[in-house]
Amino acid sequence: MDFLEETTYKAEYSNGRIIIMGLASAIHELLVGYMITLLNIHYQFKGFLVFSSNLGVKTNDQRGYFNPDVTVVKGQLEFYNQSNAIILNPYLVIEVLSEGTYQYDLNEKLFKYQSMKSVHEVIFVDRFDKVVVKFQKTDNPKVWTETIYDGENPEILIDTMNVKLNDIFDKIDAFM
Questions:
Q1: How many other C-beta atoms can be found within 10 angstroms of the C-beta atom of residue 116?
Q2: 158: which of 26, 69, 133, 138 lies 20 to 30 Å off by Cα?
Q3: pTM
Q4: Which of 76, 13, 23, 83 is nearest to 49 (CA)?
Q5: Per-residue model confidence as pLDDT tens digits over 42-85
């Protein structure tokens, strides 16, 4: 963990491995920026903080440290050890799927996020298929629901915010 805090490049830690993260594409960053903007507007003055991928999230065990593309914290920040860059209490995380991290995000990160007591929702934005997948914790913390938003289900509910699927992906059509 000390190494990860001091690196000059973006890295994550999962199951005993350090994963070096490459540069994000313009489309990826456009989607991340749009999601941050929507969430900042929605949560303004409501006791939530919205962060970009430079904020670290430490999972419950010693086998996970991630930089979600977007992190929302409800209430006060809880920091890992003496860090001011790694938190323990994300409320909502969003990952914009990329070619290089697609399987890693869905297979390793999802399970770690779901094991965190503070996480209420995990959102995956799939720019390739123009799909948003939401995993939401139920009253039973071991049970999560999965909702797929695509052309058949165009209105997305992210926490208490409604957003149209087309509004998310219309901005990237110029790049594809």
A1: 22
A2: 26
A3: 0.86
A4: 76
A5: 999 999 999 998 888 998 876 678 889 999 999 999 999 888 88
